[in-house]
Amino acid sequence: MKEYKIMKRAMKIAAKRYFKRGSRHINYKSEFDYFTDNDMACEKYLISVIKKHFPNDNILSEETSSQTKLEGRTWVIDPIDGTHNYANGYDMCGIQVAFCEGEEAKLGLIYMPYRRQFFAGIKGKGVTFNGKEIKTKQDKKLSESILTISSLRHEQPIKQIRLEIFNLINTKALDIRLLGCACGELVDVLLGKSGGYFTVKNKLTMWDYIPGGMMCKENGLPVIYGSHKKIEYFIAANNEEIAEFIEKVIIKSIDKVLDK
Length: 260
Description:
By secondary structure, the chain is α+β, with helices and mostly antiparallel strands. It is about 35% helix and about 30% strand. The chain has helices spanning about 1-15, 35-55, 85, 160-170, 180-190, 210-220, 240-260, and strands spanning about 25-30, 35, 60, 75-80, 95-100, 105-110, 115-120, 125-130, 130-135, 145-150, 175-180, 195-200, 225-230, 230-235. The strands form three sheets. It has a seven-stranded mixed β-sheet with strand order 3-4-5-6-7-8-9, with helices on both faces. Helix 4 (about 160-170) crosses helix 7 (about 240-260).
């Protein structure tokens, strides 16, 4: 697949030139949200490669093209996922890219340079980890599973909904982790380390979930993009039992918080 070969090389070059040199400057979007100079540098480089090889393609990217719709041939770019981890020296962070035709993802790529991990999913051709095909065993038991979410968040009512979710999840799941990096948490689902990953937002930011979500779906795992009372949520889980449990907890928590 031409798109795969070109973007895999581009992501590794972006990592070598920009990502691995570490954060040098922070720019604030809001009080608790920022991006680094390397978010911009990686994104600019990846877009330049796309424009060179696929000049008519659309681009949906976190920092500069966040309002693009998934129409026609569209590249989805998260130049540094887990920016807060990256800026503070944690290795749970990475570059992720997806290629879509309409709303269907045909290619998903996640590169975690500090961990030397490269994940790739091609529609109909499976998922690889550092070049070797991986299959996820769907044998996780909810009571033995660690579930993950990227952060607690600060804005209301999302923070309160997530706190309510934590309380309900701990009644049946083994534990929950906040790891600060959607792509890292999604590959942990692929590798069978985590029983499931989920998030709840006022509006989903698709660059966070399409690459990893595509790979989970390609590997036969349940993936849910949902909405309840105008609150959006995303779930990727090891099996249907865990996915259904998480979705029920999310809906129950939204109801409890919003119906007060």
